[in-house]
# Entry
Amino acid sequence: MVQEALTNVVRHADTPDCCVTIGYQAGELIIEVADDGRGGLTSGVGYGITGMRERVSLLRGQFTAGPRPEGGFSVAARLPLSEGVHIS
# Structure
């Protein structure tokens, strides 16, 4: 998901920067890729967000993607971790 989201920033966001956040909380992995771009021209082809949504769904996770209120775009996922998995 992170690689696809970063590819989308490079192709579409019209900004040189973005922020990748990866965290762990209460048995789940939390991932967010956010940019402050204005959005560039898109060709209308491709399955980036759809593919990310499908992959997260296969892992029984939650997926969101869309414009941020302060500008830019955000892609985020919450993925459940198997019982007994500990991240330190």
Remarks:
- Strands lie at 18-25, 28-35, 62-67, 73-80.
- The chain is about 25% helix and 35% strand.
- The radius of gyration is 14 Å.
- The CA atoms of residues 32 and 86 lie 20 Å apart.
